[in-house]
Sequence to fold (214 residues):
Amino acid sequence: MKIVCLIPARGGSKRIKNKNIVDINGKPLLAHAIEKCKKVGLIDEVWVSTDDKQIAKVAKEYRAKVHKRPPELSQDKTPSGDVMVDFAEKNEFSMMIMHECTSPMTTTEDIEQMILKFLNDDYDSMLSLINVPYYFWEIRKNIAKPISYTLDSVPITQEYTGHNIEKGGLYIISRDVLLRERKKLGGKIGYFLIEHFNIDIDSEEDVNVVRKLL
Fold:
């Protein structure tokens, strides 16, 4: 069985210039992701999918392989599933773990344990989640409505199990299912619960928080 890790890292980020290679404590953000993935003994190859020469240079510097991403798959609204399918159509492997480098608090141990759970529990695909103990509401046409409970039955915090949200930037899928479903998740979908603090980098403030935490 060949396990590959794919790190999507296109150029041209809008909110943070060169977000994927922004400096985090003396090292590009992408480098942190590559290094943690290369420490996972279960992973055979670490790849970076990019359209950007500077990002490709950083990837090679940190001993990752580079998959040249076509321009049509390097747009703001390109689904990550399409990027994964593009890689799968051009490379042979058994299963892929996709790690978004913008989730730098995700650890090597998270990745390793998630792969083991995927292999042991016979899933077709898997994603990382975190549990948040908050009451969720939706806003429609300026009207607020609870979606975690009804106003007739408000759970007490001690008994409230919270909600699971997609976070941690980790996805696993077999190559066969990826090519069949052509999405990042499909078939029998499992989950891996990340139980420590996690953050996705979307703003300069997030960058500063991560610098302090790391």
The chain has a mean pLDDT of 95. The radius of gyration is 18 Å. The first strand starts at residue 3 and ends at 8. Residues 147 and 157 are 16 Å apart (CA to CA).
